[in-house]
Specification:
The chain is an all-alpha fold. The chain has one domain (3-139). The chain is built from 6 helices and 2 strands; from the N terminus they run H-E-E-H-H-H-H-H. The chain has helices spanning 3-12, 33-54, 69-76, 83-97, 119-125, 128-139; strands at 24-25, 28-29. Strands 1-2 form a two-stranded antiparallel ribbon. A hairpin with a 2-residue loop joins strand 1 (24-25) and strand 2 (28-29). Helix 1 (3-12) packs across helix 2 (33-54), helix 3 runs antiparallel to helix 4 and helix 4 packs antiparallel against helix 5 (119-125). The radius of gyration is 17 Å and the shape is globular.
Length: 144
């Protein structure tokens, strides 16, 4: 399914499973809005798994595969991650969230303390592989 269709339907879907009449999505006809929502959500999950895997220090950490933002934020809030890893985690969470509010986002409230993503600070901290992962996203950004 195309990203444009997912973005369009993401904005249109409300609760329930409304039926589309004779709309064509690729080679599929007359899918319910609920099915479209499920397909878009699955696509978003895959994008986030791939984004996490592009950062070497985020590969295989809790919440990255399958994508679970709360499990991931809990891990990134723990004692093990370095400052560079927290910057990578804050970046990934800001992509998932569609940006970072001034207060640093939900991943800095309650039980979470991931930190605020700062691209200048991150690029000064990261190695070439992490900087490359970030620049790859910049070249072709997405917001699931």
């Amino acid at each position: 399914m195309s990203e444009a269709v997912c973005l369009f339907w993401h904005g249109m879907i409300t609760e329930g499973r409304l039926k589309m009449s004779s709309a064509t999505i690729g080679d599929r006809r007359a899918r319910s809005l609920g099915d479209l929502w499920d397909a878009c959500r699955e696509s978003s999950q895959k994008q986030m798994v791939s984004l996490c895997a592009s950062f070497p220090t985020l590969r295989g950490v809790p919440g990255t595969n399958p994508w679970n933002q709360e499990v991931f934020a809990q891990w990134a809030s723990g004692p093990a991650p370095s400052h560079g890893i927290r910057q990578a985690a804050a970046f990934v969470l800001s992509v998932w969230n569609g940006g970072t509010p001034c207060d640093g986002g939900w991943w800095n409230s309650g039980d979470f303390s991931v930190g605020v993503f700062d691209p200048v600070e991150a690029l000064g901290t990261w190695d070439r592989q992490h900087a490359h992962a970030f620049m790859q996203w910049c070249a072709k950004p997405f917001w699931p």
